[in-house]
Structures are given as C-alpha cells and as structure tokens.
Amino acid sequence: MLPKLKEAEYRGDYRIWLKFADGVAGEIDLESDLWGEIFEPIKEQIRFAEFELNHELGTIVWPNGADFAPEFLYQKLRPDYSLKSVHQKTNAA
To answer: What distance in Å separates the CA atoms of residue 16 and residue 74, rounded to the nearest whole number?
Structure first.
C-alpha cells in the first residue's frame, strides 16, 4: 500500500513537516533533492514555499507541476521503508 500524505507545513528554507495517514510524521529537508529541469524554478526559496498538498495524489505539488512521489517522502522519514511489489508479498506468504 502506498503511503498517503495527510498534512504538510512549510518550515523555512527547504524544510517541510509532513504527516502521513499511518501517523508517521516529521520534518524533512529537500534542498539536496531539487535537481533536474522541473525543480529548477523551485530552487528559489520563495517558489519552494508555494507547494500545496494535493489530497488526490497524496503528496506535495508546486504550481509548475513539480512533485515528489509520496513513497519518496515517506522514505525520507523512515529510511528502512521499501515499497514491496504484490509479487514479493505473494511469495513471502
């Protein structure tokens, strides 16, 4: 099951406090993750702060279309997290 982001608050610089549906919460710093063409515009902190929580996607998005996968954000809080495929779960049973 994919992590579902429920709350997100800007904390300054490139830091965001996140809370997921399963209760996992904490602050992450995304400065080192802003690489690639889509993230160039939000390297400006004033633009970075313009993110919104998209409830349908369950993640944060920016006006220019940039976003991070919810499982990537979840793993920033829980480094031991790994998304297992349905096939892996079936074989483990």
So the answer is: 12
How far apart, in whole angstroms, are the C-alpha atoms of residue 93 and residue 59?
Answer: 30
- For 46, phi then psi, to 5°, come to -65, -35
Q: Beta 59-61 vs 52-54: how paired, if at all?
A: antiparallel
For position 88, which CATH number holds?
A: 3.30.2020.10
Tally the domains of the chain.
Answer: 1
d(CA 45, CA 57): 23
pTM of the model: 0.85
Its sign, for the CA torsion 75, 78, 80, 83, is negative
| β-sheet bridge partners, residue 52 | 61
- Average pLDDT for 6-24: 97
What pLDDT was estimated at residue 82? 81
Confidence band of 93 (pLDDT split at 50, 70, 90): very low
Range of the domain at 71: 5-92
